[in-house]
Amino acid sequence: MSNEDDFEDVIENPDLPVLGADSPANQSDFYKIAFQFQKIMMLYESAIKQVETKLDILNKENTVNRRRNPIETVKSRIKSPDSIAKKLECKKKPITFDSMITNLNDIAGVRVICPYISDIYSVRDMLLKQPDITLIKENDYIQNPKKSGYRSLHLVIEIPVYLSKTEHNVRVEIQLRTIAMDFWASLEHQIHYKNEADVPDSIRRELFRVAETIAMTDREMEEIALELQTLD
Ligand code: GTP
Ligand code: MG
Question: Which pTM value belongs to this model?
Answer without folding.
Answer: 0.89
